[in-house]
Amino acid sequence: MTDLASQTIEKPQPSAARETVIRVRDLVVAFGQTLVMRGLDLDVYRGEVLGFVGGSGQGKSVLMRTILGLVEKRSGLIELFGQDRDRLSSAERRRVERRWGVLFQNGALFSSLTVRQNIQMPMREARHISARLMDELAMLKLELVGLPASAADKFPAELSGGMIKRAALARALALDPELVFLDEPTSGLDPIGAAEFDELIATLQHTLGLTVFMVTHDLDSLYSICDRIAALAEGKVIATGTMEEMLACEHPWLQAYFHGVRGARLAGARKPNDMRGRE
Ligand SMILES: Nc1ncnc2c1ncn2[C@@H]1O[C@H](COP(=O)(O)OP(=O)(O)OP(=O)(O)O)[C@@H](O)[C@H]1O
Fold first, then answer.
1. Is 118's C-beta closer than 6 angstroms to any atom of ligand 1?
2. CATH number (domain holding residue 71)
3. For the ABC transporter domain, which residue ranges apply (predicted)?
4. Whose CA is nearest to atom 16 of ligand 1?
5. DSSP-based three-state secondary structure for 182
6. Is the Cβ–Cβ distance between 70 and 152 less than 8 Å?
7. Residue 114: CB within 6 Å of ligand 1?
8. Which of 28, 96, 135, 200 measures 20 to 30 Å from 267, CA to CA?
């Protein structure tokens, strides 16, 4: 595939217009001899839903985990809320980490804890609050994600796939984050469940003013809730832009992805940022 890394199609914006919440420059990540990120650049702006796409095994989850500090980078810059992560003390790093929530693939709930206990886990780690207040907060988070109060005392194994995603989202929202990372939030859900989950993300993003970094394979999600899309190939972000801009991009991988059979069908049926008409 041709290296079109420099062909970012996003229109330049005045820097004062948008606050950059995540800024990644020249990021290199490797496992042994295998390079996964090869000088990757990415910006995520406050208040947007950024959809992050790429072929299987290209490194979408690795990038997310590197930004989160769960995978070591070999070199490059990662700035969070305007602060270089490498220059933060461990106390400052913990403070930054409390400003985000994460929904891992498949929810990653603790199977031996109830939903309520899962939601309270980040609260226990970060705050000294009474058990009663934590109970009230957990119930509020459940309501926020559309789960019934009866789900609080259930264990993950007793929940449907859609409920697990919602419970995991409630846990991600436990500390009232500004930024939320979602790793394939609609994978494993049926089309109706996936559409409802997209709608939930859009509503929360709007009402809570969240910034959302979403790794996804779901073209419907890209159409319905993403403000911008960034595409990963060969260890770099090869293009960023709105859905219209991605559709117009001539990069062969983007052409195949957005104009393949599924993409073409969706493009004919829907307008970007349109919650209606999911397949
Ligand atoms: N801990 C690890 N040790 C070694 N290699 C790893 C590790 N984690 C990921 N990789 C490798 O890094 C590459 C990128 O993996 P990653 O899971 O980020 O891909 P992805 O784009 O998220 O794929 P998918 O869409 O299939 O989930 C893969 O080749 C994977 O095997």
1. no
2. 3.40.50.300
3. 22-259
4. 59
5. strand
6. no
7. no
8. 200
Tokens of 72: 């070591």
64 occurs within a structural domain: yes
Residues 211 and 48 sit within 8 Å (Cβ to Cβ): yes
Q: Is residue 2 part of a domain?
A: no
What is the CA 67 to chain-centroid distance, rounded? 11
pTM of the model: 0.86
Q: What is the distance, to the nearest Å, from the Cα of residue 229 to the centroid of all Cα atoms in its chain?
A: 11
Distance, in Å, from the CA atom of 96 to the CA atom of 184, rounded to the nearest integer, reads: 23
Q: Give the model confidence (pLDDT) of 79-96 as tens digits.
A: 999 999 999 999 999 899
Q: Could you give the ipTM of this predicted complex?
A: 0.96
* Largest Cα span, the chain: 58
- 198 closest CA partner among 99, 263, 276: 276
> Cα(226)–Cα(228) distance, rounded to whole angstroms?
5
Token duo for residue 104: 């891992």
